[in-house]
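Case study: Threonine dehydrogenase.
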Amino acid sequence: MKAIEIAKAGEIKIVERPLPEVGSGDVLLKVKYVGFCGSDLSTFLGKNPMVTYPRIPGHEISAEIVTLGNQVPDSLAIGQNVTVVPYTHCGQCTSCKQKRYNACRYNQTLGVQRDGAMSEFIAVPWEKVLVANALNAIQLALVEPLTVGFHAIDNARVTDSDTVMVFGCGMIGAGAIVRAARRGAIVIAVDIDDEKLTVAKQLGADFTINSRTQDLHDEVQSMTHGDGPSVAVEAAGDPHTYRSAIEEVAFAGRVVCIGYAGTDVPIPTKLWVQKELEIMGSRNANPADFEAVIKYLSKTSPNLDLLVSKVVTVQKAGLMMKTWAESPGSLLKILVQF
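Here is what the predicted structure looks like once written out:
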């Protein structure tokens, strides 16, 4: 079968791999679409410390069941359209014992610590397969990236009394915007790209700020009547936005950090203590987040042209990755069609 492989930093190519073996508890999937994630871009650029090479990327999956192991339950059937929870969990670490499987100490994510889904077929444990026949093939590939933002809003305990400011309007930030808006919060979207801010507005943001061309502090103060947002979500992975989140969030506010910054970030501890802030990390997503995104996509049917920047063939995936690497802020989501 054909697969897309990142052989080493800066080198991506099509390779031939054997069909995966299907264990008794496994499901063999025929892959339809896989999204390129920011972690895949980091792998290509040689900036992902969790990756060894060569690596097949991909964990944003749209697929169809084609073979079932002999111990797979009857709830799964050949021909069902599915997506996949791409994380492992050990069941024994402190996170797993609290049922916070997304933060498992020993997690291995498809396409990161182990080979991913950018191939014609992939075998996965049946417990990680989510049936979503109500979604089309492209929607299925958008489920996982949206769940990460949904999970962050859950961590922040957002309600309709909150004002939520989201730094970074890529797919992760888009998920946070959607979830916060659907919970009735006032949402402020911050980015340096006007096109992404336009999308954010259509996804439910009440206000937008281009922090490159507008004064962030003045705009936030005006929008929040001098208080600042009660919740700040850092989904950009940039030292400047990490600091801005702490500076702009309200007293007694919550700061949720999703993005991985390329360098360590000096934290203004005076503001952390003086404001009595809750600063928390947010990693991956739980099954409930997947269910919430599937429900959102099936009942709302957002305009996919807003979320998907490019759909490319396997043959053009390598060129698209190189194009994305040259201008990472210009594209929201790239899907590879198998």
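For the exam, be able to explain this: The chain has a mean pLDDT of 95.
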